Amino acid sequence: MSRWDFVGRTDELNRLLSAVGGPEGRGLLFSGTAGVGKSRLLREGVAALPTDGYAIWTVAASATTAALPFGGLVQVLPADQPQGLSPAGILRWAVEVLQEQAAGRPIVLAIDDAHLLDPPSAALVHLLSHSENATVIGTLRDGEQIPLPIRALWTDDMVDLVELGPLGAAETTGLLAAILDGPVDSGSAERLFRLSAGNPLLLRELVLAATAGGELTRTYGIWKWTGRLELAPSLTELIGTRIGQLTPGVRAVVELVAFGEPLGLHLLEQAVDPADVETAEERGLIRMLRNDRRLNVRLAHPLYGEVMRRQCPVSRTRRLQATLAELLEQVGKRRRDDLLRVAVWRLDSGTAQDPALLLEAAAQAFGRYDVPLATRLARAALEADGGFDAAELLATILMFGDQPDEAIRVLDSVAREIHSDGRRSRWLTVRGMVSYWGLSRESTVEEIAARAGELADLTARARVRAFEAIMRLHRLDTRAALRLAQAVLDRPASSVASRELARCTIAHLRAGQGQYRRSATAVARVQAEAARWRGEMPYLQLAMELARGTRLALSGDLPGIDAIVADEFADLAGAGEFRLGTGYLAILQAYAARLRGQSDEALRTSLGACAVLATSRVYAGLAHAERAQAAALRGETGHAVEAMAEADRTHAPGMAVLYPWLEQARGAVYAAAGDLPGATKHLCALAERVRADGLAGHEVLVLLDLVRLDQAAAPVGPTCTDGGRRTVAQRLADLSERVDGALPPLVARYARAAVEDSPTELLAVADALAARDLTVFAAEAAALALRRLRRSAATGPARERLAALLSRCDQVSTPALRLLRPALSDRERQVARLAADGATSRAIAEQLYLSSRTVENHLQRVYSKLGVAGRAELRAALRSMPGHDGADSA
């Protein structure tokens, strides 16, 4: 494990540096809780100051030196002090010594833990702060007694006092990635952030404990925490020190909140003395939060609960949990959450005897996509003689928990309890779902189709037909899928859940066919009925997201993808380990990042999807295909080839509906490897295949890939009456009239401009693509325009456009962009070396200014190495050079 990097705190660091070098010259003190990062921030700020420009003294006050006169400044003042001076005289002498040592340079006095300064040192700091050439910066700990001279620094308006809060979620994730030398699974990062509450010291202890216990594992480069936490002695001691000694009454308050949070204040005060509640709040052990009309009590820090629960004896733990259940049952389960909470307390306390309670709670947990909790409750319901209903629910949950073999065993154990068509249809559909998607048995479709005919009850038969329809869609038997789904919708006896599952099948198919408006309308209908189907079939959400995601991806609607990735379902699925949901949404997020040219995010997010889906084959192939696309975009051929091989290995035959995505990725891998003829041949064959399957939406994207390879004139598509074949551009013109949305006409326009060699039109297309945030496609269109203009002197606008687009991208290397990079001249090699060596933007700009081919040969290399801030500096430096063309400077 490497040293902890300094992550985030950019605004705070800039403010600290401004306090030293700003025109006002005011000092700055950061206050905050222990471990929040005050000392590290101060060290980073001091390290950033030029030692030749300032006289810098750094002081670390401590409890050891607090009892000694001038003990806090012992590192700064001479060892021998003059004798016989009054206290005021010694202070004046100390100021003069520091001014003499500064030798005319501005003084910076940095004091860590200034609240621990002894009185004379504190007085000297206050006196020095009044000097015109001195600035005081430092840190204070919240809740400590502050020496009056230090307090006077901000009350006398000599320094600013700033409260340093905890790290945010994004900063915590960045810190974790830095220390572990790799990205962290979003769910793991969220849990570690919640437990540490953004405190870097606590986060460090958590990571050390998880690492020592082998609870941090790496899959496809992504770190994942199991969630199990063996508290290290250092962490337990640290939290124990914060909690301190507790009276029996206050301990009872903290323990009840630890096992019951969030706990209503009215419930808590029925079990303990209200005076003890007040004491716990005053000591900062608990906090009050308003939730609608209820005042809830939580622990002041999540780790307090971890420590209290670990230290509580088993017998008392069970008694406390039973007490909590009894309290809530006495006042009545008024909120939907209450039933789930009572069931968990009953289960954990060993007092759960009502299978109906456990079953209802399990369904509620599954409706929130909390797979681990739902599994526990459903298993307990089955063990408490919950019978068929408990077995059906448990098997369903096990399917989404990647445990299909156990799910089959559970279902078979209650096969003799099927005495009605209703039960038989539920048993058939759950078993079919587990067999088809969980165990990849394609024969399942025919099996449940045959069994459906045995059902006399029309509602039960409709349920089976709805599942058969979506299975046939995934197997790419689209005509049968559409016929079956439509029949379910037309049957009045169909349940709400059956109808909406059938509607999802149709919405997905319409999206693949390019009928985006009809697909969106169907999805909107499914969403409108969510309250009626979620209780019976919560996993229907996944079918809806697949249909919606397919439409958004095919139509190039990146804001739409952003919206569903940020929706409530994403949060619930991530928190509840509903991996199929989080995995698919991560694939969509990576797709959007890739089209925007954010290759770092695309690769990182697709790797995360691969890690999440490592134990499931439903979307695993799709995740690896997206990873291959991201690697190909970056020009990382070896990685792209490996990812494509993994996509082939993990792709389930029963997910044939996803083949266009995988085969598009294969074309990108061919192109990244430099095999442009192979890529062209593959994509032409793929265009024929998706056309034969009626997937016009996919066909547009495949043909777009051919245009990106400058193959708009390649023969593809149906044979014309004269025996010839239509070109890519002609086929796109046909599709632009059949496929919904703004993207198909724009892609057809792109192809036509490429065939007609129209740089002006290509640049206009680039602008239109950029307006839709399709930055990579836009950059390639601008690059194609620049290639067409090579024989002309009017390349400035194209270069400017390309520069602006590439400045929005990370590392991007596609065939269209690589074609703009001929062999380098000596001057150009010098520029590349400067960029590789981390030269200043000004130095690189000077070399670019001298070179005859600025953007065309250097832009991709230089921009990919500079980062966002460096790119901005480079452009500014170029523009500042006299006589330099504004177009070239871009």
TrEMBL record:
HTH luxR-type domain location: 817-882
GO annotation, cellular component aspect: cytoplasm
A GO biological process held by the record: regulation of DNA-templated transcription
GO molecular function, one term: ATP binding
Matching SUPFAM superfamilies: C-terminal effector domain of the bipartite response regulators, P-loop containing nucleoside triphosphate hydrolases
Keyword Amino-acid biosynthesis: no
SMART domains given in the database record: HTH_LUXR
Keywords associated with the record: ATP-binding, Nucleotide-binding
Pfam families noted in UniProt: AAA_16 (PF13191), GerE (PF00196)
Keyword field contains Lipid metabolism: no
PROSITE patterns xrefs: HTH_LUXR_1, HTH_LUXR_2
Superkingdom, natural source: Bacteria
Annotated PANTHER family: TESTICULAR SOLUBLE ADENYLYL CYCLASE, TRANSCRIPTIONAL ACTIVATOR DOMAIN
Name under which the protein is recorded: ATP-, maltotriose-and DNA-dependent transcriptional regulator MalT
